[in-house]
Amino acid sequence: MQIAEFQQWVRSTDKDTQWDLLTTLQLLSHLTEEVGELAQSINRVYGYAGEKEKRLANLGRELVDVFWFLVKLANKFDIDLGFEVQNLVRRADGWPIETIEKHRSELIGSLRTLDEELSAAKSRLDLENEAR
Hints:
The protein has five helices and no strands.
């Protein structure tokens, strides 16, 4: 299904079920709830040994739930998501190499910081385990 088709399906379904009566703030609240469920699913992918595949399947459902409410918000404001995606692709294709390199450098810096924080946490846990 294409973005425009999905957007029309959501519009039609919302009208039939009266979900189109929700206010913008209610939609934003639902979206926030779904983003929280997505975050919880991501945490569970890494948190439960032996359940990664099951948790990954749920992650897909949560991503679609987030997308569903994003589409509802787009419909509320008559935004053509297909058009906006095309604009994004055009803009991204025109990004200068300097911008791409800057983002890559920032990502590497962030990953180094994350690695340092994780190493410090692991060292602390190792020390606490040795003390027991």
